[in-house]
Amino acid sequence: MYINFLINVRIFSQINLINMSFISIANEDTLLSIMIRFGINFLVLFILVRLIYYRYSKKEEFLFSFFLMGIIIFFICAILETVDIQLGMALGLFAIFAILRFRTVTYTVKDITYIFTIIGISVINSQANVPPPLVGAIVINSIILITVFLLEIFLKKRALNSLIIIYYKIDLLNPVYRKELLKDLSDQTGKNIEKVKIREIDINKSSSEIEVYFKDKRIN
Q1: Measuring CA to CA, how many Å separate 17 from each of 22, 37, 52, 123?
Q2: d(Cα 124, Cα 140) in Å, to the nearest integer?
Q3: Which residues pair with 195 in a beta bridge?
Q4: How many whole angstroms separate alpha carbon 123 and alpha carbon 73?
Q5: How far apart are CA 125 and CA 36, in angstroms?
Q6: Domain-by-domain residue ranges, the chain?
Q7: What is the pLDDT of residues 42-74, one digit of tens each?
């Protein structure tokens, strides 16, 4: 009984010593501390970008940019932290990206939100020092990831996909024939059309350009 007690005390002491060592390392501005933070940051970026963003958007062309953006911002923040430029530097990064507004590429509002989330996560993981470091990093990043994932699930259930088509039965565009219009469009497209938006009507050609909205029943 006494021997078991001594073993438990020794194990607890070793665990406490390891934890204290990790805390001291994480709090220092050393290469090892930066690499530990980088490992956490990269893991969070992988979950956010590859496992959540790509799963629900399927935009493969943005993966490279998002990963590299998060990595570069993390190292910029980590390096500038050594010269005591913390809050001002972090806010400056947000201001720069806000001014640029990513005009070179057409981003949706959702894509821009992910961009700012990536920037925020990288700045937090580089600058934040919530004791204890490991638990604080896990809690903060977990809250962000869980929130994003739940929002994606909620929006996926309510979101409607859209499709632009040329429609020739312009008589059915009359609001009176709404049910007939939805049924005809559903039969033609093979999709359960729930909403129709008229973009353009050409009376001379008896045609119209409409945007139809439907729910995608496929499960990712």
Answers
A1: 9, 20, 36, 29
A2: 9
A3: 213
A4: 7
A5: 10
A6: 2-158, 161-214
A7: 999 999 999 999 988 888 888 998 999 899 888
Q: How far apart are CA 97 and CA 102, in angstroms?
A: 7
For residue 135 the two structure tokens come to: 């638990």
Given a contact cutoff of 8 angstroms between Cβ atoms, the answer to whether 186 and 172 are in contact is no
With the C-alpha atoms ordered 86, 90, 93, 99, is the resulting torsion angle positive or negative?
A: negative
Residue position matching structure tokens 């021997």: 3
Query: Residue by residue, what is the 3-state secondary structure of the chain?
Result: CHHHHHHHHHHHHHHHHHHHHHHHHHHCCCHHHHHHHHHHHHHHHHHHHHHHHHHHHCCHHHHHHHHHHHHHHHHHHHHHHCCCCCHHHHHHHHHHHHHHCCCCCCCCHHHHHHHHHHHHHHHHHHHCCCCCHHHHHHHHHHHHHHHHHHHHHHHHHHCCEEEEEEECCHHHHCHHHHHHHHHHHHHHHCCCEEEEEEEEEECCCCEEEEEEEECCCCCC
Q: Measure the CA–CA gap between 80 and 82, rounded to whole angstroms.
A: 5
Q: Does the N-terminal peptide bond of residue 132 adopt cis geometry, omega within 30 degrees of 0?
A: yes
Global pTM value: 0.64
Angle ∠(26,29,33) on CA atoms, nearest 5: 40
**pLDDT-based confidence at 171, cuts 50/70/90?**
confident
